[in-house]
Amino acid sequence: MVHTCCVFKCYNRATKDTTITFHSFPSKNNKERFDAWVRAVNRQTETGRLWMPSVHNKVCSEHFLETDFKPHTNIRTLKEHAVPSVFPHHPVRLLKTGDTPRREPKKRSNAVNDTEVCENAARRVALDHSYCFITHEQQIQKLKDRIQTLERSLEECRAENKALKQRLKRRDMKCDNLINQLREEKVISEEKAALLDYNFDKATLTLIQNELSAKKTSCNKHQYSESVKSFAVTVHFYSPQAYEYLRSFLHLPNSSTIRRWAASLNCEPGFLSDVINTLGDKLSIDEGMRDICVMFDALSIKKGMCLR
């Protein structure tokens, strides 16, 4: 690799006939000496920053004084604290101007007090944007409204929890009565009754009760409980095909019966009396159901022809 000098406007190159030697920058571990060499070379990048050398950059011996070299050596070696100081081609803007001290700048007095300016500006902002601030009374009223809303929600949850507990209690009593009835009628033994009570939940026992009662009556005279009706309507609503498949194993109402139950509801335009009656029944059970929300909706009605 041919060594060249990295100093500004120095074109020395390492050849066989030249007596000029080339010297590497100190190691970056010796930061003080490395920085001294960089400041002495004083090159700048295109962006105006101080140029930083790499491990391959060299400085030729013409930029050192004779006193910077060790005497009586076959190879020209720099002394430990030698720094390049000869730069004949440096531009004037890069040459050191000496250590002439600069004059102290004149003292200037502040015509405006910064503290007064900040206080006045803050006061003006507070007056101009007073609508952004919430007063203490408004904050208290907002918290009171929030508390009332949470209390109403808590009462509704308590009422719903009470109704669900009562419903669950009635269902448990009905299933217990079923097991006791089977035990008394000697349909099942005590061991089987205990096994039913332990392994099946109340909904499953309700279906078992429906199957046992269906065997004692004909299809036309069989009475379905409200739990079985609710189960049948729910399954038929999600999938009529799945409901028909389920009817092949269980005694459930016919699909036409479920449609007849739905047709008996009053769904004419206007207020639905069945809904109002249901709300009245719930209100008689729980006073927390007094507040309701009425929603209005519209349906697109078009003329059509019905063939019978």
TrEMBL record:
Superkingdom of the source species: Eukaryota
Residue ranges that the Swiss-Prot or TrEMBL entry lists as coiled coil: 133-185
GO function terms (MF aspect): DNA binding; zinc ion binding
Domain THAP-type: 1-87
A matching Pfam family: Tnp_P_element
UniProt keyword annotations, A-Z: Coiled coil, DNA-binding, Metal-binding, Zinc, Zinc-finger
Protein name according to UniProt: THAP domain-containing protein 1
Lineage start: Eukaryota, Metazoa, Spiralia, Lophotrochozoa, Mollusca
